[in-house]
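=== RUN LOG ===
request id: a7f3
mode: sequence -> structure
chains: 1
length: 176
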Amino acid sequence: MRQTKRLLLCIACFIPVAFCALLLLQLTGIAPPVGVSWGDGARGRACGFEVDRAIIFQTLAGMKPFPAGGPSRPISSAGPRIDAVGFHYHKLDIVLLADDRTPLPGVYGTQTELRIGLGWALLFSLLPCLLCLMLLMKHRRRSRDPRYCRRCGYDLRATPDRCPECGLVPATPAAA
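=== RESULT ===
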């Protein structure tokens, strides 16, 4: 049981470290953007998640097909925009442009984007890593303490001669 916990803690610590490494490699231009998206064309909805020097969440809603034979240049017109301390939120209406670059009437959908800056992304990924490292240190300290079983971590203060959980006989009995 103790080895399984240790393995899970190591995996939980590795994932944020790998995420930090990905963000730093993207910052230097070594790693390409990574992401996934999914959608439902019949309902005109789509969602996406991307890591490209930031964490980006995107949604499309209310998408309608563009008119046939008409202008084929969709753009996102300006909508509400909120920028605060590394968090960027944009809600944009998708419209078509005429050949003279003027927006045509009608909205063909809405795009929403939430972008979390690199600093927050690194902080969010390092906090779980620090928590996992603290838990690993706690388990390591407990395994060296003679009051706890070295194999399973059971408290041996009541039964210092033998662990009732796994049956291990400690080399030196724990002090009462």
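=== NOTES ===
The mean pLDDT is 79.
The first strand starts at residue 34 and ends at 40.
=== END ===
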